[in-house]
Amino acid sequence: MSLTYLSNSTILSYLEKMGIKMDLFYKTLWKHVFIIELLKLYSGSDQGKMDNLIDWFVQKFTAKDQSKKKVLDYLHKWKGSFWLNIEYKIKEMESTVSEKLAEKLGIKSQQLLPFLAELEDSHEKSTSQTIKTEVINKSQIVVNELQIQEINEMIKRMKSDLFDKRKARFFILVDDLDKEWVDNKIVYDLIKTMIDAIKELKVIEGTKIVIALRENLLRLVINKSKSRGFQQEKYESLYLKLKWSEPELRELVEKRISLIFKGKYAQRHIKVEDVFRISNDKSQSALDYILQRTLLRPRDVIDFVNKCIEEGDGKSLINGEMIKAAELRYSKSRVKAVEDEWVENYPHIVDFVNILSGCNESFDLTKFRTRTEEYLSVNKCELLYDTTSTPLGRMVNDYNDGKNMDSLVKYILTVLYEVGVIGIKVSGEESVKYSYLHYEAIEANQLTDKSNFYIHKAFHKALHTNTNSRNNS
């Protein structure tokens, strides 16, 4: 689906500029979209069946019950758009907002945009400010009241009279939210309100709406919403974190190898060990070696295996030399992937990763502090000019003023941990934790001089990590 129209809507753009909170409008939009999609699934994409469904509602409910009347009005109003695309539905909802707002302001619909444009350009006089305040208040009321009652009643009726998990189950999957489907200025609000809408639609049994969301994108949504009182713990029950086990990844590689090398090993089942050998005496498993250098994700494993096969150049046996040659290219691709994936969350992620270049495999806080100071003194990176009022900007200000740099150093370490580049042993009594295995946040204030840090093997080659000594700087 494309929501470009939503970004380009003149009326909605004016409302945003006036400071109108659009969360309820977006959430109502999502509810509306999902209700229509569920009704289409229920009716089997048969317009005649949908018409019969509405007739069934009419016969079942009497007009005396106001809540049921709202459902019937809703169905009749949107009946013609059930089979049209989402962009058309957005246009209809935008039109509803325009009509209701014009009505509240006592003007004709066609006069609304010129009125708002003139109001925006008006000088900051007390009279115009009074008018602006009145328009803002009335606009917020219109946005807040938009079909909320009708939609909530519709959800109740779908729950009680239509959907039943014992009869059939219906799924909607929303994917590719990390692509350019809407303008960045509203994308996080749209994803957050989509999650809110789905949370409320959970009451309809026999239906499930699933969002496939990358970790970094979820973090962005959460961080952008914190200022508006977003309580993350209330959403934790909605999450299902995807995790692949080593046996599942082994099976994936074996199927891939079996397909690629089909015909080179007669008709027998091909195992990874038949093709990949890290050492001649088979004392070390090549697949173990590969998996240890991934974040246990299919994309990592497939990337490494593909690069090994490329190094093999058609040979039926890929030896340790080829695997290690492929590892350098693979490691560089993993560093690039981390930077590309997380740059929107952390604009200075490239510098954070580069600080580790030439480091030991393991190090403590003192050694990382020294290395960070050396890196920042030699490289005139953009990080040093980030003096905004953000927490990071204040840390950079402290550093530039010659104050204690511990806050900045610990912040960088927690970021590197979050993106999977390093593991952290908070204290001597604890084990080493990696974010992709433990899903556990580590805060900067948990890090002390007793903490130890470990560069993940996936990044050793690209970062020229010293693996000979674990204790020297």
How does this structure look, described?
Helices cover 56% and strands 4% of the residues. The strands form two sheets. A three-stranded antiparallel β-sheet has the order 3-5-4. The mean pLDDT is 84. It has 21 helices and five strands. The longest helix has 23 residues, at 320-342. It is mostly helical and 473 residues long.
Summarize the structure in short.
This protein is mainly α and 473 residues long.
Characteristic terms for this protein:
single chain; 473 residues; mainly alpha; three-stranded antiparallel sheet; two-stranded parallel ribbon; 21 helices
Characterize the quaternary organization of these chains: single chain
Give, in spatial order, the strands making up the sheet with the most strands. Answer: 3-5-4
- Beta-strand fraction estimate: under 5%
Mean pLDDT: 84
Helix content, binned percent: 55-70%
The number of strands is 5
Low-confidence stretches: none
What sequence of helices (H) and strands (E) makes up the elements? HHHHHHHHHEHEHHHHHHHEHHHEHE
Choose one word for the global shape: globular
Major pleated sheet: 3 strands, antiparallel
Number of DSSP helical runs: 21
Structural class: mainly alpha
Q: Please report the distance between the alpha carbons of the first and last residues.
A: 52 Å
CA radius of gyration? 29 Å
